[in-house]
Design goal:
The chain has 297 residues and is α+β, with helices and mostly antiparallel strands. The chain contains 7 helices and 13 strands. A 6-stranded antiparallel beta barrel has the order 7-8-9-12-11-10. A 5-stranded antiparallel β-sheet has the order 4-3-2-1-5, covered by helices on one side. The radius of gyration is 24 Å and the shape is elongated.
């Protein structure tokens, strides 16, 4: 008998029972296995007997191999076509890194092996509901967030804190939260004198906020004007968040060496795609921010 992380162990007697293999003791996949049982959420070390078999998982599609004994999907889980399991891994890795947690610490909190967490983050896997619940608790988020449900809805629909505290952020903390890159919103006066707020992928280089756009676009209208640039983060699970607002003059970067250096240092291509070779730089003259936290923090 050989298994991989994420496979399902099915025991047929005396009563049918199944569980997700969340830890291997041998690199060749032979028993014993650490199994999280679907009926109790307990993890035990299992030496499978003759009444047990492995239901392998197709790591590309997250479905059971056709040669194995069929196993009905858990009633609490979504149908496979309702989610892209690879997205779960990307969200897991992003949230873990955002909180500064190692794989080992996250795995310890979720009671799974670090190897299994690596498998979930790097492969197209479909973890059980029990494992998703454990990972969500370990990361202080929700299963819904890890699955990506509600990504097309505006943030902040959760309940407000019982005793929230809104506090001002100092300049240094504001600059730290701006970090080096991400997605922010720029407020400009577009053609016809109409105000507009649009999102852009941005970088922070030498205390300037820079972004790429194309000639004639709404973000390009920022050049030669005083603009406002805002970045924020909302923690839906904890009903808290922060926002930073930078105000200052914007200008087009024209020096060829500087343009080449900005392109070289860029962390990502603009999400909007297409040719965007106009760099606009904002030099903040005022940076302010606010954070919402529980009153006792």
């Amino acid at each position: 008998m050989r298994a991989h992380l994420g496979d399902r162990l099915v025991v047929e007697s005396p009563a049918r029972r199944d569980g997700e293999i969340v830890g291997l003791r041998h690199e060749d996949g032979t028993p014993p296995y650490d199994v999280r049982w679907s009926d109790t959420d307990d993890i035990t070390l299992v030496f499978p007997g003759p009444d047990a078999h492995i239901q392998h998982t197709d790591t590309k599609h997250g479905h059971a191999d056709a040669a194995d004994v069929p196993f009905p999907p858990a009633a609490t889980g979504p149908a496979p076509e309702e989610l892209n399991p690879g997205d779960i891994g990307r969200r897991l890795a992003l949230e873990r890194r955002r909180q500064g947690l190692s794989r080992e610490e996250t795995a310890r909190r979720a009671r799974i092996s670090p190897q299994y967490l690596a498998y979930l983050e790097e492969q197209s896997a479909d973890p059980s509901m029990a494992t998703l619940l454990a990972l969500a608790a370990a990361l202080g988020t929700t299963v819904t967030a890890l699955r990506g449900a509600g990504v097309d809805l505006p943030p902040g629909q959760g309940h407000a804190l019982l005793r929230p505290q809104l506090r001002d952020l100092g300049p240094e903390e504001c600059r730290r939260l701006l970090s080096t890159h991400g997605v922010g919103r720029i407020a400009v006066t577009a053609s016809g004198g109409h105000p507009a707020v649009v999102p852009v992928n941005y970088e922070v280089v030498d205390d300037e906020i820079v972004f790429r756009t194309r000639p004639g676009s709404v973000p390009a209208a920022a050049a030669g004007t005083e603009v406002a640039f805002e970045v924020d983060h909302v923690d839906e699970a904890m009903s808290r968040g922060w926002s930073v607002l930078a105000v200052g003059p914007a200008s087009v970067v024209t020096e060829p060496d500087t343009v080449r250096e900005l392109a070289r240092r860029a962390h990502t291509d603009p999400w909007a795609g297409g040719k965007r070779d106009v760099w606009v730089a904002i030099r903040p003259t005022r940076v302010t921010g606010k954070r919402i936290t529980p009153a006792d923090r």
